[in-house]
Amino acid sequence: MKVFRFLLTALLAGVAVSGYAQVTFKGKVIGRTKQEKLYGAVVTVTDARGKAFNVLTDDDGEFKFKRLAAGEYDIKVEFVGFDTYRSHVTVGANKETEVRVELEERVKELVDVQVFGKLNSEEEAGARDKEQRSHNIVNIISAKAMERSPDINAANVLQRMSGLTIQRNGGGDEAYPIIRGLDPRYNNTLINGVKIASPDDKSRFVPLNIVPSDLLGSIEVHKSLTPEMEGDAIGGTVNMVMKDAPEKETWKVLGSVGYSAIFFDRKYLSFAHKDIQQKSLIEKNGLGYTAQPGDFSRSNLDFKQVTSPPNTVGSLVYGRRFLKSKLGLMTAVSFQDQYYGSNSTFNQAAPDVHAKGAPTYSDYATRAFSTNQLNSGLTIHLDYALNDRNKFTLTSMSLYSFLAQAREVIDTSLLGGNGGRTVPGTGPVGKDYTSVTSRQFLEDIKLEGKHVLSNHFFFDWTGVYSYATKRTPDFADLTINNKIDTVHTTHDPNGPYAFVVTPDYFDDIYRIWQHNVDKDYDVLGSLAYRNGLPGNGSLELKAGGLYRHKTRYNIEDQYTLKPTTSSSGIKQEFTDINSAQWTVYNSAGTYEYDLNNYRLYEDVTAGYGQFRLSFPIVDITGGARVEKTKQGYSLNNFHPTGINGIDKDYTDLLPSIDVKYKPSVRTNIRLSYYKAIARPNYYDLVPAVRYSTSDATSTQGNPDLRHSIADNYDIRYEWYPGADEQIFGGLFYKKIKDPIEYELVGGTQYEPVNVSDATDYGAELAFTKFFGAIGFTGNYTYLYSKVYSTKSYYDLSSGISNKDTLEKRSLQGQTDHTLNVSLLYRSKKHKLFAEVAFQYSGNSLAVVYPIYGYNYMQRPQSNLAFSAEKELKAHFTLFTKFNNLLNTHVKQEIGSLRVVDEQTKLNFSLGIRYTH
To answer: Which CATH number, 3.90.78.10, 2.60.40.10, 3.40.190.10, 1.10.40.50, labels domain 2-109?
Structure first.
């Protein structure tokens, strides 16, 4: 009997549990005024015993509780910028209960919204909402859009945004944003709203290709500035926002594998890394050391043709809140191991004195690059709300990037040089084999506090430490050469001939060690006063400041290895690196006299005053910022004939005003003016010659360089027809004083100089619109710029070159037409999303040529990419990404001459993602 009772009790309990699991409570949350779906609203239900359950609304503003017991519940719905919704609901047994919640938008947003509130811009609806509410002109791409796009790093994501293109170096391993046709030097890059140190050895910005998109919550591109924003952003500001602590526990794990199609057609060129010495001989042994031939490794110049490994990507994201939601944690780690390559022709041009300096081919080169780039990142976010009036946040980010690149360049001289070309197919042939490894590391720690001092006063403070380094140990370049000539097969000098090829001869080897270290210390603070005004308005008065101390040091040491010769002086034939014999031409290295050994500093002190008036029909934000800059450099070793150091300081007053007119709840019309500056890149001031690692040019700094100042004007119309939809149209105009451009100053050497005042203006259009399951998103940008620079022309009658001619041209890097269009398909029923992305970029000025009437122009490109994802059962999603489906080439021309033709071919990946 006891056994029977026990089984009966167990059976009834099982039935009860089964019924409990079947009770579902769901609903939809929208904004009452615009009827927009609100993603990321926090829905909390509390039972009669006081136990609370919460979820977040999805893309469609929907929520669902699947395992609630039948009974009475209090429901609360919260969303930033809206009044809190509270109600009471009865959840029936064995049936589905559904509610519709309409939230009322707060009118006095500045006064009423909690100082700690934030909009979730990781989803498309949240990004659109943040764009609409912003007080300046901004474009935002969400984490969801990045996740679904064909891209895996910040650089590739940005090139699909309105008004942006990406500047890449010859090897494709560095990428920087060009905003509205302005070179990266005119823009700044932030992480979580503050500047960070740069590992780049020449510039002040972070290579965006080393930032994995899996770490990002959103990317903001600010195209106008307010006084509280740093003022060195003539083109704009790129702010990479790391993932934030979620309201609900979140797990996300991702893994993918892929391949670069270029290695279907050729092998990957590899070299050994194990013998590469991380420190130069001077660093290891001290000054005065005499280098010996045996001090230099050979294995990193012993190249092997191998099958390329696959590309792999992995990431892990975890976040949740503790201590009754007072403490928030978010951590994300990402790993990307990519193998890619390029095949190209690189034809050098030189002035033809018999054709008024018109360019003619001087060299014909083929190049094959094989690159392995490993990028990894870790971000940790902690926030703690001490109470309703005090909140502290600690954010740490670490990025590591390792690059190994092998280069094979075969260069045939067409003019001069060991006899030059006699007939087609002949001439001296130089072969360069280069191995490069570099390690970049970046760490940023940010601690901030937000404090409500009273009902009207708010105080924020931030402290930042940022560290970055790049080490390029033992950059090794081997040069060998031979000559293709003809030999006549008869005694007739005009008769038939045959080709003959000399053996390969050993020319020389260059070994270079370079590394730099950047450190930044930042302190920021602001005090704000907020109060309501008659007519449902509000006023904010804000004052704040910033102090930054930056240091950088750079070390370089170079050695030249020359081949040994026979007793009769005959050059050494080259068979392989292991049998080559050499002497050390400069056995003491270049450390003691190399101008690339220097220290830099930059101190920026800033203060601002800002006001903000907000009414239902208009918002006005304005004020002024003052920035004082002190910067300079000093060489590590004294040079009696050169400039050993400089110190500069200048102060800029930077006013700005933004007007946002709101004729309806779905429409904004924005007018903006701001003054901004662009400081010279750090290396630009140092009068040292740096040889390019990707082409036959060099760059020298200019201590007399002045910073640039610009007046910037914008007008933009915005319409938000739906929660994740938008249509933008705008015009902008910029007048730049003392713009900085690279000019050819002699031979193949370039120098940054201040050119005449420039104008830059254009139009932008952006749109996202869905028609049921089908959507279209894209943008178009037209750019025009004008600047005058000094050019030369050849006077054949006098035989001299004149440099008194001014030529009108566009700014370097500016693309006249840029179009991005994506066709989207999303089906909630089939849990499927797909995107076909097309990109067109028009002509752009790549390099300024010294002769009047000619410049290196990059020709138009069309790119096609595809991505798709299918949600499976139990939280899993299968996804794929394809890039460069059209096998687009990068082409540059000067006049009618093709000088660059580079192809990288298709790359693709397939992966799976787990989300909980």
So the answer is: 2.60.40.10
CB 158 within 8 A of CB 184: no
- Whether the Cβ atoms of residue 194 and residue 462 lie closer than 8 Å to each other: yes
Q: Quote the tokens at residue 651.
A: 């102060």
CA distance 164 to 588: 46
Q: What would the mean pLDDT of 282-309 be, rounded to a whole number?
A: 96
Please give the Cα distance from 463 to 798 (Å, whole number). Answer: 64
pLDDT digits (tens, 9 = 90+) for 497-514: 788 888 999 999 999 999
- In the chain, CATH 2.60.40.10 covers 2-109
pLDDT tens, position by position, 684-732: 888 888 766 545 567 888 999 999 999 999 999 999 988 778 999 999 9
Instruction: For residue 908, give Cα distances in angstroms to 151, 264, 369, 866, 912.
Output: 10, 13, 19, 9, 14
Q: Which CATH class is domain 143-242?
A: mainly beta
3-state secondary structure string, 407-465? EEEEEEECCCCCCCCCCCCCEEEEEEEEEEEEEEEEEEEEEEEEEECCCCEEEEEEEEE
Q: Which tens digits make up the pLDDT trace of 243-276?
A: 888 888 899 999 999 999 999 999 999 999 999 9
Rounded to whole angstroms, the Cα distance separating 595 from 642 reads 9
Q: Which DSSP category does 507 fall into?
A: E
Does residue 743 contact residue 756 with C-beta atoms inside 8 Å? no
57 Cα distance to chain centroid: 31
- Where, residue-wise, is CATH 2.170.130.10 in the chain? 143-242
